[in-house]
Amino acid sequence: MATSEIIWTTDWDRNFLCDAGLYNIHKFWKVETASKHVEYKHLRDEKSEKPPGERQTTCIRAKGARYYIKRASGHFYPALINEFNALNTMSSIGVLTPILAAFFLDENSKTALLVYKNLAGFNNLRKLFEGTVSPDAIADFQIRKKQIIRELAETRGKIIKAGYLYSEWSADHIFVKYKGPGIVLTDFEQIEAVASMSWTRKNPISFSLIKMQEWKNFKSALMSKIYTDAFLKKILKDK
Ligand SMILES: Nc1ncnc2c1ncn2[C@@H]1O[C@H](COP(=O)(O)OP(=O)(O)O)[C@@H](O)[C@H]1O
Ligand SMILES: [Mg+2]
To answer: Residue 171's CB: how many other CB atoms inside 10 A?
Structure first.
């Protein structure tokens, strides 16, 4: 295990999480047994023997506040580094992402930890479509649906224009601000700069298949057959 320190982005989160018993990387790494003040729920839990590595995404609750933590080691380490780097890139092109409360990245031990603040004031798109959020949030969504879809399409446009391929379109990864503009995307482990793709992926035949898949994923994130190509083009045109 690495010996370097966790980098905290705010004193408030540092004090809060340290008080809850999460004061160093070892505590975060073993968050399941770290402290009686911390509840947890795994959203993803992967282990690989060959090549070796561990990968976990966990929602934790400490003294009523929620955080999302992503842990990766070994074979899974580069993907989390990719996500960490993408946070800056996305912010520079005006794409909103969750905010880090803390992080720990250690090249020597191939250990990475990202601690995200909960997306308070936002609702998950899948939950909005499924109607499993508050009635107020559902009503707001129904009224602003077209505007939200447009904003989402604009977000996709910003990523493409900046030369990146984000293929993780899924309603689970999209968060919509309650009563106001703002779309947040999550999960940047697989995002790629088109310029640094290998020729195997970038050649015209492979790349057009990759782009088709990206568009298919985008449309299925919208969870409805009414969002056809023509409909989406129209929505973007008549803004
Ligand atoms: N900061 C956050 N606030 C609220 N929900 C989040 C946050 N980060 C992630 N999530 C939720 O947790 C799920 C898993 O996170 P994600 O980054 O997709 O991890 P994985 O790489 O394991 O798929 C996401 O689909 C999203 O619904
Ligand atoms: Mg995910």
So the answer is: 17
**pTM as predicted:** 0.94
Q: Whose CA is nearest to atom 2 of ligand 1?
A: 118
> Is 98 a pocket residue for ligand 1 (Cβ < 6 Å)?
yes
Cβ–ligand 1 distance for 173 under 6 Å, the answer yes
Ligand 1 pocket, residue 168 CB under 6 Å: no
Structural domain including 196 reads 122-237
Which residue's alpha carbon is nearest to atom 17 within ligand 1?
187
pLDDT in tens, 77-86: 999 999 999 9
User: For the chain, what is the domain count?
Assistant: 2
- Ligand 1 pocket: which of 45, 60, 68 to mutate (most atoms within 8 A of CB): 68
Q: Are strands 65-74 and 111-117 parallel, antiparallel or unpaired?
A: antiparallel
Dihedral sign (CA 49, 28, 85, 171):
positive
Asked, for residue 2, whether it belongs to a domain, the answer is: no
pLDDT in tens, 163-209: 999 999 999 999 999 999 999 999 999 999 999 999 999 999 999 99
* Terminal CA-CA length for the chain: 52
Question: Could you tell me which of 208, 154, 220, 205 has the C-alpha nearest to residue 182?
Answer: 154
CA of 205 to the centre of ligand 1 (A): 32
User: Residues 126, 131, 137, 140: is their CA dihedral positive or negative?
Assistant: positive
